[in-house]
Write a structure and sequence with these properties.
This protein is α+β, with helices and mostly antiparallel strands. The protein is 51% helix and 19% strand.
Length: 382
């Protein structure tokens, strides 16, 4: 079978290769945008997914603690601990701030958790968990801190004893884990005057200490055999808090945090595909028009429209294969440049490949119609 693609590569290789390269860059951008979206989803759900909680109890009429501000008294968890169907509860506190790393400022999310309970740092890849009651921290590798580094959080220095991976906030900021009491002091004891007033107003017993501070949320693990949705509904009804199950929390994060960004990515992907189709269509049409006489000769010697169509499609698919190969290589090479996490997976590559070949097929329709209309008599014309 005669191949128009091989003929064009042989005699017009520069034009064929240039179009494949341009298409490859567009495909690289397409693959990257898919990866950025997947990365945003992974970032938004990284803390909830690794917390070990079944239910998030937050302030009434809020969608906290990740998508909205929420404030609860720290001793509220005691009332939930004895609630029917509840196996474990734990306070957590989240807030973002700037910390110094050498001469640079790094924005991080501080996560305060209770030792041995829900919300502990997961995915520790080196070092150890926090074992001292104060002034130790576990940081995500994205923060740039190393084991043994000091992180100054407000007035105190915290020694990095462990490093996690893929523990980030919904905004993609690396998380620094510290003990809950440390986080509460950072959040609520901001200066000496505040410390003096707190001590003057309340005693320093454990009960009063936990009641005067607040947390963002109470994590709840449901006992085996209990329906998670029903336990959440009961907490909401009788405790007058908002109680979200994991699917509800995930939906809130995806709809409140990344919905607009996802829409923008979707529109940009559509624009990229239209531009890609236009480029391929222009090249295939130009090449087809330059070979109308050869196509007429083929028809004259017995080639049918199906064979002509297949030859033009092969030409378009050849450009698509070159473009996808270049796009895949380029997308892999420039991933480290991006500041946020980009998630690549096999399905993204397969979807991108299918889109590329589909676009190339659609872009060849005009050329196919023009080739089919060619009369065999044109082969012996002037």
């Amino acid at each position: 079978m005669i191949s128009l693609a091989i003929r064009d590569i042989r005699y017009s290789w520069w034009r064929y290769s240039l179009t494949g390269t341009i298409l490859g860059l567009l495909i690289a951008a397409t693959i990257t945008l898919f990866g950025i979206y997947r990365g945003m989803v992974a970032d938004a759900t990284s803390l909830p997914a690794t917390s070990g909680a079944d239910i998030w109890v937050v302030q009434e009429n809020t969608v906290g603690p990740y998508a909205d501000s929420s404030s609860l008294y720290a001793d509220e968890y005691r009332g939930l601990a004895g609630f029917p169907g509840v196996a474990e509860v734990a306070n957590v506190l989240y807030f973002s701030l700037q910390v110094e790393r050498g001469t640079d400022d790094v924005r991080v999310m501080v996560a305060g958790y209770q030792d041995g309970k829900l919300g502990q740092p997961a995915n520790i890849i080196t070092g150890r968990p926090i074992v001292q009651s104060k002034y130790e921290a576990v940081a995500d590798v994205k923060s740039g801190f190393k084991l043994g580094d000091k992180i100054k959080i407000r007035r105190n220095d915290y020694t990095v004893v462990g490093l996690t991976e893929r523990m980030v906030s919904t905004a993609g900021d690396p998380v620094v884990f510290i003990r809950l009491k440390d986080a509460q002091e950072v959040q609520f004891k901001k200066d000496n005057t505040s410390i003096y007033n707190d001590r003057k107003r309340q005693s320093t017993t454990e009960d009063n200490e936990s009641s005067k501070y607040k947390t963002n949320a109470i994590l709840v693990r449901v006992a085996p055999g209990w329906d998670i949705k029903q336990v959440a509904a009961n907490i909401k009804q009788w405790k007058h808090f908002e109680a979200y199950t994991y699917p509800e929390m995930e939906h809130l994060l995806l709809s409140k945090i990344i919905e607009k960004a996802a829409t923008q990515i979707g529109f940009f992907l559509i624009i990229l595909e239209i531009v890609s189709a236009a480029i391929v269509a222009l090249l295939i049409y130009t090449m087809t028009m330059s070979k109308l006489k050869e196509i007429a000769v083929l028809k004259l010697i017995g080639a049918n429209n199906g064979l002509i169509t297949l030859m033009i499609l092969q030409e378009a698919w050849g450009i698509g294969m070159i473009g996808y190969t270049i796009g895949f290589i380029v997308s892999v090479l420039w991933v480290p440049i991006f500041p946020r996490y980009i998630a690549y997976s096999t399905d993204i590559r397969l979807i991108s490949f299918a889109l590329t070949m589909g676009i190339c097929s659609l872009a060849s329709i005009i050329s196919i119609r023009a080739a089919i209309k060619v009369e065999p008599a044109a082969a012996i014309g002037g």
